[in-house]
């Protein structure tokens, strides 16, 4: 919270999860986000764009849906299925502090991967989107000195 402006907001666009203002964001992180992250969550950074007022990360978020995760799957009990989601996080910066976080992913793909959306006849893909991104970006994902790379563990995005 020390890294945020006085009136920050956090919004997970597909589910409208998050909060506005420090108290709501603290409540969201404390009760709905951090304790509900799967132990095997992994974030693979694909690209990062930085400007004076914004950081945009494109990444693949992977995890096993082994617990209630209302910020991604509101009201859905654990399915114990693997999920791989291309995700974009836009972080606004004001006066050197985080002003907002907007997180985007394809909710239809997420629901398909946990078996809650029948995709027959719909233009919906699952983990194939992550696989295709990796294939297309593979040469640029090789480690370069000083470049951000994939990580494991918990992330605020």
Can you offer a commentary on this structure?
With 157 residues, the chain is of the alpha+beta class. It has a single domain, classed as Nuclear Transport Factor 2, Chain: A. The chain is 21% helix and 37% strand. The chain is built from three helices and seven strands. It has helices spanning 22-33, 107-113, 128-141; strands spanning 4-12, 17-20, 42-51, 54-64, 82-94, 97-105, 151-152. The longest helix is centred in the last third of the chain and has 14 residues, at 128-141. The chain starts with a strand and ends in a 5-residue tail after the last strand.
Helix content: 10-25%
Strand content: 35-45%
Strand order of the largest sheet: 2-1-6-5-4-3-7
* Spatial gap, N to C terminus: 14 Å
CATH class: Alpha Beta
Taking all Cα atoms into account, the compactness measure Rg is 16 Å
Which fold name fills CATH's third level, the topology? Nuclear Transport Factor 2, Chain: A
- Name the overall outline: globular
Number of helices: 3
Number of strands: 7
CATH architecture: Roll
Structural class: alpha+beta
Quaternary class: single chain
Return the average pLDDT rounded to an integer.
Answer: 89
- Encode the helix/strand succession as letters: EEHEEEEHHE
Please, how many domains?
Answer: 1
Low-confidence stretches: 143-157
């Amino acid at each position: 919270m020390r890294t945020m402006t006085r009136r920050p907001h956090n919004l997970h666009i597909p589910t409208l999860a998050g909060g506005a203002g420090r108290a709501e964001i603290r409540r969201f992180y404390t009760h709905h986000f951090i304790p509900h992250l799967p132990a095997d969550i992994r974030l693979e950074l694909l690209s990062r764009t930085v400007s004076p007022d914004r950081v945009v990360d494109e990444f693949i978020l992977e995890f096993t849906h082994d617990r209630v995760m209302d910020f991604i799957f509101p009201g859905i009990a654990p399915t114990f299925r693997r999920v791989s989601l291309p995700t974009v996080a836009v972080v606004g910066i004001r006066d050197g502090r985080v002003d907002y976080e907007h997180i985007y992913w394809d909710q239809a793909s997420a629901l398909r991967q946990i078996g809650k959306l029948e995709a027959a006849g719909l233009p919906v893909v699952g983990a194939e989107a992550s696989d295709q991104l990796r294939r297309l970006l593979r040469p640029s994902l090789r480690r370069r000195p000083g470049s951000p790379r994939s990580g494991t563990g918990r992330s605020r995005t």
